[in-house]
Amino acid sequence: VHILKIDSTGWYNGINTGITPYETPKQILVYPNPVKNEVKFVLGLYSDLVLNIYNSTGHLVINRKLPHTKTINIAHLPKGLYIYILKDNNNFFEKGKLIKQ
């Protein structure tokens, strides 16, 4: 069991609950959401991920390698709903939604 406390900058830290041995959190944070110009991908223990962002019609609009935590500028994209997919070569896969204001 992990309890996450996230401050206004997106910093997070796992807290030992005493129920299970503490491990460094593996969570990936994506913030802020909704997004105006820049979105930050905090990769936790993950590295060397590929980021794909798709618009609401399924077209790939951003494809980037993320070797570590990174801020992505999406100011050039129109307002709307986007889907992001993070993956690696070891079958890791995570997806989520971004709202561009």
List the helices and strands and how they pair.
Blueprint: E1 3-6, E2 12-15, E3 29-31, E4 38-42, E5 49-54, E6 60-66, E7 70-73, E8 80-87, E9 93-100
Antiparallel strand pairs: 1-2, 3-4, 4-7, 5-6, 5-8, 8-9
Number of strands: 9
Poorly predicted ranges (pLDDT <50, ≥5 residues)?
Answer: 21-25
> What is the N-to-C succession of helices and strands?
EEEEEEEEE
Number of helices: 0
Largest sheet, order of strands side by side?
6-5-8-9
Mean pLDDT across all amino acids: 81
Largest sheet: 4 strands, antiparallel
**What is the chains' assembly state?**
single chain
| Rg, Å, rounded | 15 Å
Structure classification? mainly beta
What is the CA–CA distance across the termini? Answer: 34 Å
Shape: globular
Range of strand content: over 45%
Report the helical percentage. Answer: under 10%
List descriptors:
single chain, 101 residues, mainly beta, four-stranded antiparallel β-sheet
Provide a descriptive summary of the structure in words.
With 101 residues, the chain is mainly beta. It is 0% helix and 49% strand. It is built from no helices and nine strands. The protein has strands at 3-6, 12-15, 29-31, 38-42, 49-54, 60-66, 70-73, 80-87, 93-100. The protein has a four-stranded antiparallel β-sheet with strand order 6-5-8-9, with no helix packed on it. Strands 3-4-7 form a three-stranded antiparallel β-sheet, with no helix packed on it. Strands 1-2 form a two-stranded antiparallel sheet. A hairpin with a 5-residue loop joins β5 and β6. The chain is globular. Residues 21-25 have low confidence and may be disordered.
